[in-house]
Write a structure and sequence with these properties.
InterPro entries: DUF6492. Pfam families: DUF6492 (PF20102). There is one protein chain. This protein has nine helices and 15 strands. It is an alpha/beta fold. Strands 4-3-1-7-12 form a five-stranded mixed beta sheet. Strands 8-15-14 form a three-stranded mixed beta sheet. A three-stranded mixed beta sheet has the order 10-11-13, with no helix packed on it. It is globular. It starts with about 20 loop residues before the first strand and ends in a 5-residue tail after the last helix. About 40% of the residues are buried. The N terminus is likely disordered.
């Protein structure tokens, strides 16, 4: 963990500056490059209030993504974020089509695991007060001011109240329990809240304190602790840290999702895509087309008016 700023992990954050600085953070990889390019184009067109955009990638994807760099956009090598003992390899079990991250200190990790670790680790690299996380398969369709993520000196914590008490959500409940274990929360204290979405914000000082808490409880690097369980969610860890250990200090809650996401199912036809966009709630400013669904990126560009 970066030692230049390690706040007391249980002291609770103070109020944000009157005009806090913000950065947008995107973790991506080579197969999503064109989607990430679309995100950058729409972000530059529609989004205000962010000082910088960080794109976090594996070392071998660095040259590809550097095409997207500007004076306000940096591509960050995961080698500058994560311990060198965590290394990526082509996975023979997938006939070398997938990547696996191996070490003697963690379980074998996939790309989606390591993307989560990068999103936590950027807090020790960035200098902005608020980190806004946006997946690379998102496109902004409307004007959006990042000031929506702070109010009265506090940052907005996305939370869906009580949903884990309902049937289903078994995987989310497991992620919540593992978050509690990583944070040293007594196993009898469970949470019924869900914190997972895209286009959400964290306080950088709180992330640093959260990592300090994990290291203090376990006496090990926070990457090693989190990576020792393959079932984890960075959003659950942050949410439970804020609510269960800080009693919400420095944050206010919001349940509205600013991005409408097509999570599962088949790729949308042109008419289905138009209906999906038309069904955006008033507060929603972006759409997400999960990349594994296979919606053609050229179709998305055409239907949102970028390519005619």
């Amino acid at each position: 963990m970066n030692k230049r700023f390690v706040p007391d992990p249980l002291a609770g954050p103070g109020l944000l500056p009157k005009a806090p600085t913000a950065a947008i953070v995107t973790a991506s990889y080579a197969p999503d490059f064109e989607r990430c390019r679309l995100l950058c184009e729409t972000l530059d067109r529609h989004v205000s209030g962010a000082a910088h955009h960080y794109i976090l990638v594996e070392h071998r994807d660095l040259a590809l993504f550097r095409q997207l760099q500007t004076s306000r956009r940096s591509v960050v090598d995961e080698r500058d974020l994560l311990p060198r003992w965590l290394r990526a390899f082509d996975d023979p079990l997938s006939l070398f089509r997938r990547r696996v991250w191996l070490s003697l200190k963690t379980q074998p990790l996939r790309g989606w695991h390591v993307q989560q670790l990068r999103r936590i680790a950027i807090s020790a690299h960035a200098g902005e007060d608020v980190l806004i996380f946006c997946d690379s398969d998102v496109a902004f369709l409307k004007a959006f001011d990042c000031g929506a993520f702070w109010r009265d000196g506090k940052a907005r914590l996305f939370r869906r109240d009580g949903v884990l008490a309902d049937d289903g959500h078994d995987e989310h409940r497991l992620w919540s329990r593992n978050a509690g274990t990583a944070l040293g929360i007594d196993s009898s204290r469970t949470s019924v809240h869900d914190y997972i979405s895209t286009l959400i914000a964290w306080r950088r000082d709180t992330v640093l304190a959260m990592c300090g808490r994990i290291e203090k409880v376990h006496g090990r690097d926070w990457v090693e602790v989190i990576g020792s369980a393959r079932k984890f969610s960075e959003c659950m860890i942050y949410g439970r840290y804020v609510d269960d250990l800080l009693d919400g200090a420095g944050h206010f809650h919001g349940s509205e999702e600013f991005c409408r996401v097509h999570w599962t199912g088949e790729a949308l036809s042109d008419d289905e895509f138009r209906r999906f966009v038309a069904g955006m709630a008033p507060e929603q400013v972006a759409i997400g087309m999960q990349s594994f669904i296979g919606t053609d990126i050229g179709r998305i560009r055409r239907l949102i008016g970028l390519d005619r």
